[in-house]
Every structure is written in structure tokens, then in C-alpha cells.
Amino acid sequence: MGKVVVLAGLPGVGKTTLMNRLMELAKERGLRLGFVTYGTLMLQIAQKRGLVSDRDELKNLPLERQQELQLEASERIKALRSREGTLLVDTHMFIKTPRGRWPGISVANLGFLKPDQFLLVEEEAERILTRREKDSARRRNMSEIRGIEAELEYSRYMAAACSVMTGSPVERILNREGKLDQAVERIIALIERVGDLDA
Predict the structure, then answer these.
(1) Structural domains of the chain, count
(2) Residue 193 class from Cβ within 10 Å (0-12 exposed, 13-18 middle, 19+ buried)?
């Protein structure tokens, strides 16, 4: 059965650019690597049901409805897992909702995903803020540096909790400005080692 690697990070850490480069290098090197975005699956399901028109509306849905969407997305990812190779699941450790921070992956969904590895992508808070300010495609409330630092810390707590609940390792990936390939090579090295704990 294929492996699942959860790749998580705050909005603005440069995860999309990182993933694009990662998939490019994986193809060049013949690595069997699949990719799915958790939020995109949820959005597709919600749009099909007429619940939302864009991704930013997802977080304003009642939490019970979000849980339903998460669960269905997890079931779809579980089906993708049965293929050979490694499946990267792009997500966030938490989502800001009107009721507070909500897990990007809940306890129930971890049972479906059964991740083999968690990778937490990070960047300096100042760079995250700069990237968020440049991203006009999404509607976001701009956070101050201290707020972003608190988000980074909370993400680490969430990743640690997921690691404890699944018995899967968690590793931080620093996506520093101008050092994209260094971060990508670190991810590839970790993906290649994912099966080691099974031995």
C-alpha cells in the first residue's frame, strides 16, 4: 500500500511554490509521488452541494457541516492511498473560524488518513506577513507579526498532537527565502525514508 505524507503550513509560508518545485523534481527523478490538497477536495464537495462559491466561505460554514466535508475528503484521500508510491496531502494544522481555531485534521479523520509522516513547513513571521500582503487572490485579515508567531507556535502544538495520536514522526521544514531547493531536497530525503520505521 502507498504511503501518506501530510504537508502542512500556515498561509504565506510558500507551500504552493514549494509543492510545485517538489513535484517537478520528483518527475525528473522518477519518484512515484502523488499530490492532493485537502481544502480543494472539501471545496469541490461543498460547491457540488451548493454550500459555497469559494474556499474562503468554507470556514464560515457551521462546524458540523465542515466536519462532514472533512470526513468525505478524508474518505477520498483514503481511496487514493491504496495506490503505489507516496501521496502528499497539502493541508493546514488549523483553520480560523468564527468560533476559534479548528483542527485542519480531526481525530476522526486521522483514522482514515493514517499518515506515515507529518511535515510542517515554516518561514519567518516577517516573510509570512509580506507574502500574505502580496496575495490578492484570497481574502484574509492581516495579522501582526506577534499574531503570526502565535499561529506558528499553535501549528507546532497541533502537529505534535497528531504525531502522538498516530505514532508518526513530525519534522519541521524551513522554507527560507532564496533557499527553495534546499527545503525541497530535505522533503525528498524524508519521503525516501518514510518506510524505514516499518522495518
Answers:
(1) 1
(2) exposed
Find the domain containing 156 and state its range: 3-37+85-198
Q: Which amino acid is at 79?
A: A
Hey, what amino acid is at 14?
G
* pLDDT tens-digit readout, 163-181: 999 999 999 999 998 899 9
Q: Is 78 part of a structural domain of the chain?
A: no
In whole angstroms, give the CA distance from residue 25 to residue 109.
30
Collapsing DSSP states into helix, strand and coil, what is residue 87? strand
Place of cell 462532514: 68
CATH number at residue 153: 3.40.50.300
* 10 touches 145 (CB < 8 A): no
Q: Is residue 64 in some structural domain?
A: no
Distance, CA of 6 to CA of 8 (rounded, Å): 6
* Helix spans in 135-197 (H): 145-166, 180-192
102 found inside a domain: yes
> Taking all residues of the chain, what is their mean pLDDT, rounded to a whole number?
89
Nearest residue to 35 (alpha-carbon basis) of 110, 93, 86 = 86
Residue 77 lies in a domain: no
Would you call 3 helix, strand, or coil by DSSP? strand
Q: Cα angle at 14 between 120 and 122, to 5 degrees?
A: 30
